[in-house]
């Protein structure tokens, strides 16, 4: 019996990177995992295959979490299949970097629509399905409390994730639903590789500033997500957990 046996978990953005690892480890601990993706069907199918070939249960659900209708459709399908939800991992997120003069309304809304509004609408739709002991894990970023230069809008979205998580932990505490922000530092994923950040001087500087001396791997974050999802963490809510190899302000 795994730590999460009998639990139903939704992981958004589980076709690659941190979300894929979280889905895999939740499945390995016995959760039935709903694997959401927006565009990468093949990656999401691989996530489901990894879980099921290890003896777990998982199913695929396409949905753009910056789109209210898709969010509603996703939770309606979870209600139809399972009638309840124990774990929600709001992992889907996008980054964008650039100088102040290049900030546009379009880019602002692109980042806020997924990283902030999508997360709020996801929680709004999830809570009526969540049972006592439910756990919401919002994937923020170290940048939410340690903003870097040229990341103003991204770090603003992730600062919002921190405060939303704390506020909603207080609101949902009486329902015995826990809400925590789990905030990776630099983590080697497809998204990070595609950003070009790993080729730059800022990557070397970030590694130097990390007491544990390396970049994170998706499983480093996923192990903490398993803990937060499990009943072992029943006394942990409203926390902003920095998962970044020891970097501090
Ligand atoms: N990697 C890092 O260094 C790092 C550091 C701090 C925080 N984070 C945070 O960790 C989370 C995951 O990052 P990552 O590096 O693993 O990203 P990634 O490798 O780029 O993967 C992003 C995932 O999000 C999904 N996604 C993107 N837009 C979506 C949408 N509109 N609706 C639903 N899903 C969507 C993608 O699905 P499709 O491929 O199907 O489109 C993909 O599964 C993000 O919230 C990110 O801000 C990452």
What does this structure look like?
The chain is α/β, with parallel strands linked by helices and 249 residues long. The chain has a single domain (8-242), classed as Rossmann fold (3-Layer(aba) Sandwich), CATH 3.40.50.720. Helix content is 44%, strand content 17%. It has helices at 17-28, 41-53, 68-82, 105-126, 152-172, 190-195, 201-208, 218-229; strands at residues 8-11, 32-37, 57-62, 85-90, 130-139, 178-184, 240-243. Helix 5 (152-172) links the parallel strand 5 and strand 6 (178-184). The longest helix has 22 residues, at 105-126. The model has no long low-confidence stretch (mean pLDDT 97). Bound molecules: NADP nicotinamide-adenine-dinucleotide phosphate (NAP).
Topology, pairings included?
Elements: E1 8-11, H1 17-28, E2 32-37, H2 41-53, E3 57-62, H3 68-82, E4 85-90, H4 105-126, E5 130-139, H5 152-172, E6 178-184, H6 190-195, H7 201-208, H8 218-229, E7 240-243
The structure holds NADP nicotinamide-adenine-dinucleotide phosphate (NAP).
Task: Provide key terms for this protein.
Rossmann fold; 249 residues; alpha/beta
Task: Kindly summarize this structure in a few lines.
Helix content is 44%, strand content 17%.
